[in-house]
Amino acid sequence: MIKAEHLTKSYGHKNVVNDISFQVETGKVTGFLGPNGAGKSTTMRLMLGLSNGGGKTLFDGKTLNHYEQPSKVVGILLEAKAFHPTRSARNHLKILATEGGIPLSRVDEVLDVVGLKSEARRGPGKFSLGMSQRLGLAAALLANPTYLILDEPANGLDPEGIAWLRESLKNYASQKHGVFVSSHLLSEMALLADNVVVIGQGKVLADTPMHDFINVNVGTTVFVRVSDQDKLIRLLDQQNIKYSKQKRGLELKGVKTDDIGKLAFANKLTVLELATKTASLEKAFLEVTSGSENFTAKEIR
């Protein structure tokens, strides 16, 4: 696994990354979340030794600079356009392969994997952002590394590309690899990640399995709409069931649909709507990061 231990980075008197520790396990996708300016990109750079700071990161027990071929340990995508703009996509990858001691046959393999085989001879300077992301991912995959560290890899991808990326990363992790990926696409991250690390203002706010993060911080609720809402409210008060009024009905906590259905039937209430509302990653994220945002906007008028 990757072990990030007490990572710290300051600019002047401001701690951008403040004593952060977490783990990235093989066989799983770990999502990395936080508001803008939380320190996600800086944390990734510290992990890879690309920024100076405190703490250390161990890749299977060793820091990255102790490996003779670090590209076989971790593949990275931190910037979508980290290439020479006029060198062809294939030649860009060939240079990386030669430097990393990787067979050149691997170049066309990864171009095919990311869907750029037909664009291999083009200079990536005119690539769209989505195509640039695909080329960056090809570079990260080139050595078939144990780990991937990817910063916002879905930026610029169309819906088909996002779905492809999700399934590709899940499949890669299932082959005894570890994937550490940041994204602001919370609905997508909910489908992708097994574990989640959330930071805010340079500190770890959560480090837990995705399912636990959502359910502990938000939990599931039950929505109900009946023929006589006032009567139902009286019944809920009698049984100390928590509820909140919605536009069309009531949202209840700590109960199941079966419980409410039986309660309504026993008290001759006609149930017009009854459903379980699954908690969302977005709601849990907003709950956990509330107050840790670096930028607070107002309503557009």
Describe the protein in words:
The model has no long low-confidence stretch (mean pLDDT 91). It is elongated and about 75 Å long. The chain has helices at 40-47, 89-100, 105-113, 129-141, 159-174, 186-192, 210-217, 229-238, 257-266, 281-289; strands at residues 2-11, 14-24, 29-33, 54-59, 74-77, 147-151, 178-182, 195-200, 203-209, 221-226, 243-245, 250-253, 271-277. Strand 8 and strand 9 (203-209) form a beta hairpin. Strands 5-6-7-3-8-9 form a 6-stranded mixed beta sheet, sandwiched between helices. It has a 4-stranded antiparallel beta sheet with strand order 11-12-10-13, covered by helices on one side. It has a 3-stranded antiparallel beta sheet with strand order 2-1-4. Helix 2 (89-100) crosses helix 3, helix 3 packs across helix 4 and helix 7 crosses helix 10. The N and C termini lie far apart (48 Å). By secondary structure, it is α/β, with parallel strands linked by helices. The chain folds into 2 domains: 2-208, P-loop containing nucleotide triphosphate hydrolases (Rossmann fold, 3-Layer(aba) Sandwich); 220-278, Alpha-Beta Plaits.
Can you tell me the CATH class of the largest domain? Alpha Beta
Class inferred from helices and paired strands: alpha/beta
* First-last Cα distance: 48 Å
H/E series: EEEHEEHHHEHEHEEHEHEEHEH
Give the overall form: elongated
